[in-house]
Design goal:
It is built from 23 helices and 16 strands. The protein has 571 residues and is an alpha/beta fold.
């Protein structure tokens, strides 16, 4: 092993941390990810910045909180000009390449305003969240809004799986013995087998495309973002995976009748979302879980092939591997479907990092209990390539000290997650204005506090209630009131931190006596007379402007009183 040259940045969509065997699942065995964990670090308390795809991913790609990058939901573009991984890494000679999904929506209006051609190299990178797209595939074709007929559809047709939408008709549909087709969109059929042979389904296809890139990459260092569409719905897997699991293999559902008795108003409204009502019906979760688990098993098998390929190509010993997810999935827990609130199954995600650097030998096979966030990956990657820390831009912290077995003196005491539910039916049901439809969560490792506009907060004690079944947000107990006040202030302090001054580094500000520089430029604010300026100049630290021949004569003239004749002689 040696210094890192490449980074394989793997992300799954809607993967719960508790559905890997290295995170404790008793029936769903993921030996290839377990092997990765054995030669890396498992982060047990890794949290995303939003429970929904788009904003979570934009936080991964920018290293910034949702309120900073502004892409608060799936169809909200990230601003043209927002710095991303690619922008940080390209000046260091590192390619930033995409294979798979980003859920990125291009800011076409912003590019038009700035005169940027969306088809130019710069325009494409802005549209692809800073990545050079080797192959982008967001899934759910033709409805993703990105590409209604992507390369995967052409691939399926070339294999004999034709039709206007082979993604749905073959890869995400089941077929009865009499030839009747059942779309995987319907949860009822999630325990059926997809029509497609396993080798032609989405996960193996996108894995092979990643191999294609690595084979062609050449000698330039790269960060390859391999972003799997699954186990995101439709929850339909091909054989032999479709038959591997039954409902009896699933984790027990986590929910109680108490949760439905006088719940928080926003929580109550979200329990009325169609997906939540469906998942709360008897038998629905039992039908879905075999398909969900099967898709995860297929991902693990494909990762085994990919890791073996890295060995064959001779790049394993210089490639950092990062495995994560954009968020989890309720799957009926807490009477919810999808990912609309802040319970652990949704915002606590898997994070496994293998760093080939010899300094990481001390932590191989270990687990880290520090609170980490999705925004930590961008500064970690910058750290790998020797880039300068940019705390005025990047909100996260480099994870390399933790990978090297160091315990940083100042590590975060809280994680923060944000969600904009203005696009959901719950906002309409509650008659909430879009600007008031934000909720924010802060978690200190024990207490989880959720702040809403115009509604009471929520509070959970994960020490006494690890399944988050008892909301203490309205509790009159002194302890709970004290905790709510403490976390409210911590969240308010977080919100007060300036995060939009991204064009001037903090270090630049700290290294310059700003008022001296203003005076050196001939802008004299608050001086009484020439002597006052002369005394101040004697204390100025040497700077560029003080020795600039275009500036110094002006300062000299302003500092010392003179007659017009003396000024002419001086000239």
């Amino acid at each position: 092993m040696g210094q890192v040259k490449n980074i394989l940045f793997i992300m799954c969509d809607q993967l719960r941390a508790d559905h890997l065997s290295c995170y404790g699942h008793p029936k769903l065995h993921t030996p290839n990810l377990d092997a990765l964990a054995a030669r890396g670090v498992v982060f047990d308390r890794a949290y995303v910045q939003s429970p929904v795809c788009g904003p979570s991913r934009m936080s991964y790609y920018t290293g910034r909180y949702v309120n900073c990058h502004g892409a608060s939901w799936n169809f909200v573009p990230i601003r043209a000009g927002e710095m991303t991984l690619g922008d940080h890494l390209r000046p260091l000679g590192v390619r930033s390449v995409l294979v798979g999904k980003t859920h990125m929506r291009a800011d076409l209006s912003g590019m038009s305003r700035m005169g940027i051609d969306p088809h130019s190299q710069v325009g494409v990178r802005i549209a692809e969240c800073g990545f050079d797209p080797y192959e982008r595939d967001d899934g759910i074709h033709p409805y993703s809004g990105h590409d209604p007929d992507p390369a995967y559809s052409d691939y399926l047709r070339a294999q004999g799986f034709g039709g206007d939408n082979p993604w749905e008709e073959w890869a995400n549909s089941a077929e009865d013995e009499d030839g009747t087709l059942h779309s995987g969109w319907f949860l009822k059929y999630s325990n059926r087998a997809a029509r497609i042979p396993a080798e032609h389904s989405e996960t193996p296809y996108i894995t092979r495309r990643a191999m294609d890139f690595i084979r062609e990459a050449g000698s330039q260092p790269w960060v390859l973002h391999l972003s799997y569409i699954k186990p995101h719905w439709p929850y339909l897997a091909p054989e032999p995976y479709a038959s591997m699991y039954s409902a009896a293999d699933a984790l027990p559902v986590v929910r109680s009748e108490e949760e439905r008795h006088d719940p928080h108003p926003v929580y109550a409204a979200m329990m009325e979302h169609r997906v939540s009502r469906t998942f709360s019906e008897p038998g629905v979760r039992e039908a879905v879980m075999p398909g969900y688990m099967a898709l995860i098993k297929q991902i693990d098998d494909e990762l085994g092939k990919l890791f073996a390929f890295l060995d064959e190509q001779g790049v394993s010993d210089r490639t950092m591997i990062v495995f994560c997810a954009d968020h989890g999935d309720y799957l009926g827990d807490h009477w919810l479907g999808e990912k609309d609130l802040f319970h652990e199954p949704v915002i606590r995600t898997p994070l496994i990092i293998h760093d080939p650097d010899p300094r990481a030998d001390a932590t191989r096979g270990s687990r880290c209990s520090q609170l980490v966030e999705a925004i930590d990956l961008a500064p970690t990657f910058l750290d790998v390539y020797g880039g300068t820390a940019l705390p005025h831009i990047l909100d996260g912290l480099s994870l390399r000290p933790l990978l090297f077995g160091q315990q940083p003196a100042e590590w975060r005491q809280h994680v923060v997650c944000e969600y904009d539910f203005s696009f959901q039916d719950s906002r309409i049901a509650l008659a909430v204005k879009p600007r008031d439809a934000w909720m924010r969560m802060i978690f200190d490792g024990r207490w989880k506090y959720v702040l809403f506009e115009n509604f009471r907060p929520m509070l959970f004690d994960l020490q006494s209630d690890p399944q988050e079944l008892h909301d203490l947000g309205a509790s009159q107990a002194t302890e709970h009131a004290t905790v709510r006040a403490r976390l409210h202030e911590a969240l308010f302090k977080w919100a007060r931190q300036p995060r939009q001054r991204a064009t001037v580094a903090d270090g630049t500000i700290e290294s310059i006596q700003v008022q001296e520089r203003i005076s050196e430029g001939g802008i004299l604010i608050g001086y009484w007379d020439e002597d006052d300026l002369a005394q101040a100049r004697a204390r100025f630290k040497p700077r560029f402007a003080a020795t600039n021949p275009l500036v110094k004569p002006t300062l000299d003239r302003l500092t010392f009183s003179s007659t017009p004749e003396q000024e002419q002689d001086h000239a």
